[in-house]
Structures are given as C-alpha cells and as structure tokens.
Amino acid sequence: MTKTRVTVIDIANAAGVSKSTVSLVLQGSSLVNEGTRAKVNAVMRELGYVYNRGAANLRQAGAKSKIVGVVVNDLTNSFFAELAVGVDMVVQSAGFVQFLSNTSESIDRQREVVASMREHGISGLIVSPARATDAADFKPLVAAGIPVVVVVRNLPGAKVSSIVSDNQAGMMSAVKHLAGLGHKRIAFLGGFPDTAVFDDRLAGYRSGVEAAGLDYHEDLVVSSPPSRAGGVEAIGKAIALGRRPTAAVCFNDAVAFGVCDGLRARRLEPGADFAVVGFDDVIEAQAAVPALTTVSVDPQGIGRRGAQMLLKQINAGKAEAETVVTAVRLVVRESCGAGKTAPARTGKSVKIETGR
Amino acid sequence: MTKTRVTVIDIANAAGVSKSTVSLVLQGSSLVNEGTRAKVNAVMRELGYVYNRGAANLRQAGAKSKIVGVVVNDLTNSFFAELAVGVDMVVQSAGFVQFLSNTSESIDRQREVVASMREHGISGLIVSPARATDAADFKPLVAAGIPVVVVVRNLPGAKVSSIVSDNQAGMMSAVKHLAGLGHKRIAFLGGFPDTAVFDDRLAGYRSGVEAAGLDYHEDLVVSSPPSRAGGVEAIGKAIALGRRPTAAVCFNDAVAFGVCDGLRARRLEPGADFAVVGFDDVIEAQAAVPALTTVSVDPQGIGRRGAQMLLKQINAGKAEAETVVTAVRLVVRESCGAGKTAPARTGKSVKIETGR
DNA sequence: TGACATAATTGGAACGTTCCAAATATTTAT
DNA sequence: ATAAATATTTGGAACGTTCCAATTATGTCA
C-alpha cells in the first residue's frame, strides 16, 4: 500500500522546521516554542506519523527499549496467567510492552526465547524459571546490564532479584488452623522433595506442627508428584499408615484435589471425614465441591510487584539484587471442615505479614 | 558493566574479514566459504555477540520484524490463555516473538497497546477485539501493510481476516444430542441478544430443534448476561414456564454452571433431573460435579490456526482477507444425563466438519 | 598461458532516529 | 542602540545492520 513510511523528515518539511526540532517535540522537550510544537503535532497527526522506536533505540545505545520480557513455564495454568496479567498492568501503564513467552518447562525453549528477547533488545526480564534452570543461565544478561527478576521459584546461586511467596508462613498457618480445629495427626502430602519450594513448605509445616505442641513424625510427610494424580497416590499411602492422620496440608491445590478424589474413592468425604488444605488458591479452588481451603498467594500481586521491581531497576540503571517474600493468606472454605463461608473469594482470611 | 556492545564490526576485525562477510554469515548466505563461516561463528561465540534486530530491521525497511502482536481481552480467562499459548507455539517455532497484551475489554487500552505495538514495528497482529471495537479501528494497520487476524469475535465491516469457531454447528449438535436422549422441550439459556455470537448460536439452536422434528418456541429462549449469575437467572425464568423444559443448551459454560446452581437451589440435580449442556469447554468443565457436557472449541487450536494464517500473510507480503470457521465438537460428560464417561477430556465426541 | 567464468569478499551508502555543538532569534539590561 | 543573556532552532555525525555494485581470488577450458 503506502510505499514509504512517514518519517521525521517528512514531518519537518511539511511543518517547515528541521528534523531536530521534530525530534525535540517527540521527546517533549521544553526547549521548543509552544507554537511550533503545536504545528508539528498537527502535521504529525495529519500525515499519520508513527514513531519508529527501533531507530530511536539504535541511537540511544540500548538504554531504553520500552520492552520487558516475561517468560513463564505454563500460561495455561491460571496461576501464571494471572501473574502475567499483573505484570502487564504495571508495565503497560509505564509505557512498556511485554514480550510474553511460554516454555512448557523446557529449558531449551527457555534459552531460545530468552536469546530471542535479547536480540530484540528487552530492557529487563521477568522469569519464572523452568525446572532445571541453571543459576548461571542469566549471567550474560546481568553482565550486559539487563536486570532480571526471578519470580515464583527462586534460583539459589544467581545474583538476580527474586520474589517468591512466603511458603513457610503459609504452610505454618495452614497447620495451625487445622490444629486449632482439634486435629492431632496432620499429614504433609505431595511435592518433589528436591525442590526449594518443597523445602520451604515442609519447613513451614514442621514449625506449624511444633508451634501447635504436636510431635513431628516423619512418616506423616509423603511426597509425590505435585499433580492431581500425585495427590491420589499420596493420600493412599497416608491412609495406610498405622495411626492414620485426620487432616492434611497439601503441597499445592492440584495435589489437594487429588487427595479429595482419593478420599472419595475410599468413601470418605473431604471436609466432613478428613480435612484437607491446599496451597495456591487457583481459581478452581472456590468453585470445587467442597470448596477448597487453601493458602492464597495472589499471583497477580506477585506479577505487579515483580514488574515494579524490574522497572525500578531499569530506571535506576543499576540492578541491586534484591529479594522479597510476599505475604500470603489462608482462605478458609469448606474442605477443612470449618464450615461453609458465604462470600466467594473471601471468608475468614488470615493475613500473614512478611519481613523485608 | 560491559561498556560497549559487541558489534558486527568487532566480529569482522577479530575474524579478519569484512563486516559484509559477517553479515552474510548472519543471514546464512550460501555465498560464504565454509571455512570463513566457521571462523566467524567461532568468533561470535567467543565474543558473546548478540544480534541487534532493531538495527537490522531499520535497514530492511519494515519488511520483517519477527514480532507479532497479540491482544486479548481477558488473559485471566483460561480460554484466552490457551489461545495465547497456541499462538505462541507456532509463532515461536517460526522464529518470531509475541507481544502479548491484555485489554480487559477496554477499548482505550486496546488502542493504546495497538499503537504501542505499531511503534515497535510488529509485522502482524492477532486480536480478539474488545467489546465496542469499531471495524475502522484497524484500518490504519492494514493500510500500512500490516496483516491483522481477528479471532473469536468477528468484526463485521472490517476488511481483515478472521477466525471464529463454528457456533452454529456446535449448538446444533448439542440440541440434536439432547433430542436423541429423548428430550422434547429444550431451552436456550443465556447470552446477550445483540451480539453476533449470540445470533449464530441461536441460529444453530433453531436448526437443531427443527432438524430433530421439534417445534421452535420463542419462550424457550431466555437471554441473560453470559455469566454464572446470568445462568441462575435464566434457569429461574425457564422453570417458571408453563410447560417447563427438561433440558437446556447454554450460551457458554459460565451460564451452564449458573444453571446448575439454580437447579440445585430448587432441589433438582443437574444431569439426573434436568439436562444441561454448555459451550466452550473451559478447563473447569471436566472437573466440575457433575462434569459438564459442552461444546469444545479448542482455543489453542484457534490460536495456532490464527497464527499460521497471520504468518502466511506476513510472508506473502500481501494480505488477502480470509475467513475461517473452525470445527467444534460436542464433548459428552455427565451434565446431560447421558451417563459417566471414563477418560477425562475425551468421552464420546462428535467432530463437526467445517466448510471453508 | 590467456581468457573467461565462477566463487568469495568487500567498501560505502542507506535505514530513521537522537545527540551534540553551533547558529540564529529574541529579550533584557544598560 | 548595543552588549549580554536567554530562548529557540539547526545541520551533521553517530547507532548497527543490510544492500548494492564492485572487486579480488579461484577454477576451467582451450
């Protein structure tokens, strides 16, 4: 269609000024006379000018591309979708746009998309690293002065900022809640023991148990894949135990759903005959029957916060690696046997304050 | 950190060739000698060169930016999340990256993000337009030779490609299925009557009813907001009818869930006492109790297909506005009373072939 | 060996912007 | 009215790549 795009020079000619002046108004410089600014703007509108960020960026030596990269491992999981929405909100209102990619837990894919994003000149990256991500993987980025914020899963050795939810406090409050309901034998179900998140949640479980004056028994923690199927498997083992537990905190909501399935298969009604608490508060948690009592981590909030952190670092020019642990709250619904709650996503909620 | 980025010239010097040669190997040209190619590649790796697409793009006169824009109205809705994943899959393997933005149904937001994407030089756009989007809104884009593919909702007057699911055939098959189960009075519940999607689905309902040899009664179609609450409202009205229906097809899954709620509030068990069928097959549909019989639209497939279409147009250089209607299939689960199905997302499924 | 084809390489110029130093226009103060 | 200050505007020269036309190296054929 249009042969040649409208450039700053076209505007300059049409407005009777120099390209430099046009550039100045583009940048909102206070140096230009109000009259000329108005005229230039008018001409721009008239000719349908569109700013070429690529060119601008080229000159400005990488400083500010107005693009941030976001990579998650499973957009299909509503947890990450919400996270992305949170990022988008703050990033968008700062005039940035987000490159969003999905790795499906594939580390090769992750490398590819990060490389691609880099070629496109992102000025920052928010990433929920795929399973086997090496801490050194983001070294080149930070070496190039591109701030990186790791979310959800933390990356031990890497010198990047990170923001994770307070797994420990969350699990602890879940256990305390169950203990408060009179449960004496509370199991910890699901999750792979070789991950940092598992360690944190287990630690929280342990502190909760001890804080409630109960004994910590190793046989009450049974690991399994962090999936629905894993939950079925885990509850099966737990129920076969000598002194069987009467309640369980689960590694995440998927496991919790599986636990409910397994319970029902044994003619036990979750909530009534056995209390179960999840972790994450995925959307299905409130619609399920029974509605799942769970620890809500507010993924959208994490996204927003991560984005703010990233923007701060982008603007500061230098990236101080900083770590924040976000608050988490227990949402009491039905599956713990504490009774129904009226308002959907609310209910009795225990907010857990967080350190630095 | 690193003062100055590594450029093609640095590579050229280090490898003892000219920048032109380096450029050639960058583009995989067959003109360069294998030996030099290898050496250049080695040097690039050694110096940690990263390609600057912005610069390249500048020279190549807008032709190919390797960026596609994707805008959806609600990423939080798993329907759109899956769509985005579908787009990402094909786009990624074609070496593109996607700008993904969320409009939350705000048309201003939509305008902003599209403008921003344009400044960044996207070479194509996939958009699920916000509610009140004007057909003329994408005119400038196509005028600039940037192909646009509209998905999910179609945009009547716009001369852009679009891809929507076969609402009519889907609804028709749902009705036929219910009729096959012996239902004589089947209601059409939920949705706003002023939208194209509603019209299509209603038309499908009507054809289904007639194809089954039943009479079409206007009082059996009750509109309402396309939400869970709307479903409750609609089933309330439907049940108050003189000759009350024994089954219903719903505008979408949210409505269907609401219908189930409303049924239960009246001590009627969905599936057993009243058959309900949804539309969309959102993830919750299979996990719900009873599992929802619904028309599956495969959002990820739409995403993939839309992306393919877009890439084709980008490569072709010229955009023939083309319209495709994607196949849809009825997934029979429990809520229609046809009995339980063993495998999760499968069950008896009726694939509906689609025209052009 | 010379003439010619072919393979491989190469130096600018260009893409659309921003930056800089310098030029010009306008005020202000004397 | 003139110097000094201030407000505005302006030509290049970059930024890192690709393209083009032209050059040089290598091979082939008689």
From TrEMBL, chains A, B:
HTH lacI-type domain: from which residue to which, for each copy? Answer: 6-60
Keywords, ordered alphabetically: DNA-binding, Repressor, Transcription, Transcription regulation
Q: Does the keyword Repressor apply?
A: yes
From the UniProt record, which GO molecular function terms apply? DNA-binding transcription factor activity; transcription cis-regulatory region binding
- Pfam families annotated for this entry? LacI (PF00356), Peripla_BP_3 (PF13377)
InterPro entries registered for this protein in UniProt = HTH_LacI, LacI/GalR-like_sensor, Lambda_DNA-bd_dom_sf, Peripla_BP_I
PROSITE patterns, alphabetized: HTH_LACI_1, HTH_LACI_2
Q: What is this protein called?
A: Substrate-binding domain-containing protein
Source organism (scientific name): Rhizobium phaseoli
